[in-house]
């Protein structure tokens, strides 16, 4: 392994790296990097059978780090910061790629202190912190913006944003200097894995899939489904995903079971075979009010040739485009969501036209190969000449 520059990914969930950045890790490894992954040893959103040992099957070296995803206690946060500093000093990576907010903030500070030569900060959406309006969230946002400035002050850093609005907001707030911001839309999906297929027989199936948070519009979706069922619309409404007790914004299991018992929705547990799931759907819906990057489920839906109904917010509208491959509605409006869903439920021809256009958009702009190519180009721009010479172009 001598002579191979070390690339360290730091992320708040090992499974998130596995599901969203594994292909990038494989490409970096094949280009000549020695790939390492640092993440907490516990799992919040991972399937029950996922283990970090899966990383070794791809020749990725794993490092456990103490990181509380939602905690704000000063002792625990300092522990995370010190653990990252020690890891960087011991591992001596040529480049660190931070993913999600705490790795970006604490990892950025630790990288400056430890003398890491190059840093990538991946902003995967501004999240709950930038959409919440209660006093506590506003205070945390004020503090986070100032920590962003410190974390992004590394002399050799690029910040990757997934949609232009996030980049403009971070630049306007002074969190990150505009010349350091690079736009790479989403994490990409495999156009080979996600292929268009004929719609299945039977009543149209409308799917909401993802993390089951209130801000993702799960309650709005349930209310829209209730209205449509009350109007006699023949369709199935499926919520796919697991809930958790560790996030106060998570939809409680009792609410999901209650809606299912009422006949409003079907609740399916998390699935890892999303290509097969999408082949069995007619419409994909994401009525999010969250600070999205570019939602992967919407890229997958477009790649699979499925019509989309989504919120008209940054991130969603970067892949879901009004009257091209999607119908967009304001967030938190179950009445308008129900109208848009009914329009697609009743019009198979419109679904087909939107789905075909979605596939073309996904191929042109959101393939995993394109995202990997652009990200590796960012890496090369940051590496010193010796490290750059050690990897393939």
Concise description?
With 393 residues, the chain is an alpha/beta fold. The protein is built from 16 helices and 13 strands.
What does this structure look like?
By secondary structure, the protein is an alpha/beta fold. It folds into two domains: 6-188 and 367-390, Rossmann fold (3-Layer(aba) Sandwich); 205-365, Glycogen Phosphorylase B (Rossmann fold). It is 44% helix and 15% strand. It is built from 16 helices and 13 strands. It has helices at residues 14-20, 22-31, 54-57, 74-91, 101-114, 135-151, 164-172, 218-230, 253-262, 274-279, 296-303, 316-319, 334-345, 348-365, 368-382, 385-390, and strands spanning 6-10, 34-39, 61-64, 95-99, 119-123, 157-161, 181-183, 205-209, 236-240, 266-268, 283-286, 307-311, 326-329. Strands 3-2-1-4-5-6-7 form a seven-stranded parallel beta sheet, with helices on both faces. Helix 8 (218-230) links the parallel strand 8 and strand 9 (236-240). Helix 2 packs across helix 15. It is globular and about 65 Å long. It starts with 5 loop residues before the first strand and ends with a helix. The model has no long low-confidence stretch (mean pLDDT 92).
List its salient traits.
16 helices, 393 residues, 13 strands, Rossmann fold, single chain, 6-stranded parallel sheet, 7-stranded parallel sheet, alpha/beta
């Amino acid at each position: 392994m001598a002579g191979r520059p070390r690339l360290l990914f730091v992320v708040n969930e090992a499974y998130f790296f596995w599901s969203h950045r594994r292909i990038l890790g494989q490409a970096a490894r094949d280009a000549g990097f020695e790939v390492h992954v640092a993440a907490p040893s516990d799992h919040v959103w991972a399937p029950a059978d996922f283990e970090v040992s899966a990383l070794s099957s791809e020749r990725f070296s794993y490092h456990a780090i103490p990181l509380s995803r939602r905690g704000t206690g000063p002792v625990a946060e300092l522990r995370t910061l010190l653990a990252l500093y020690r890891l960087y000093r011991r591992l001596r990576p040529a480049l660190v790629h931070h993913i999600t907010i705490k790795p970006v903030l604490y990892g950025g500070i630790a990288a400056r202190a430890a003398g890491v030569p190059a840093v990538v900060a991946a902003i995967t959406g501004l999240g709950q912190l930038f959409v919440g309006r209660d006093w506590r969230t506003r205070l945390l946002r004020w503090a986070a913006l100032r920590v962003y400035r410190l974390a992004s002050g590394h002399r050799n850093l690029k910040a990757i944003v997934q949609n232009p609005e996030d980049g403009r907001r971070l630049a306007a707030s002074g969190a990150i200097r505009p010349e350091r911001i690079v736009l790479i839309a989403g994490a990409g999906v495999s156009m080979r894995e996600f292929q268009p297929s004929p719609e299945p027989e039977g009543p149209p199936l409308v799917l909401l899939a993802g993390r089951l948070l209130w801000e993702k519009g799960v309650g709005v979706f349930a209310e829209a489904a209730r209205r449509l069922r009350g109007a006699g619309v023949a369709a199935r409404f499926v919520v796919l995903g697991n809930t958790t007790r560790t996030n106060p914004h998570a939809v409680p299991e009792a609410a999901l079971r209650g809606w299912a018992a009422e006949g409003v929705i079907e609740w399916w547990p998390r699935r890892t075979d999303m290509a097969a799931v999408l082949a069995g759907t007619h419409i994909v819906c994401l009525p999010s009010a969250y600070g999205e990057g570019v939602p992967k489920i919407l890229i997958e839906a477009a790649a699979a040739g499925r019509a989309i109904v989504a919120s008209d917010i940054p991130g969603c509208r970067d892949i879901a485009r009004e009257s091209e491959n999607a119908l967009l509605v304001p967030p938190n409006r179950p009445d308008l969501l129900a109208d848009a869903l009914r329009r697609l439920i009743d019009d198979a021809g419109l679904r087909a036209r939107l789905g075909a256009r979605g596939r073309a958009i996904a191929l042109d702009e959101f393939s995993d190969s394109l995202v990997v190519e652009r990200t590796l180009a960012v890496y090369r721009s940051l590496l010193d000449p010796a490290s750059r010479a050690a990897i393939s172009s």
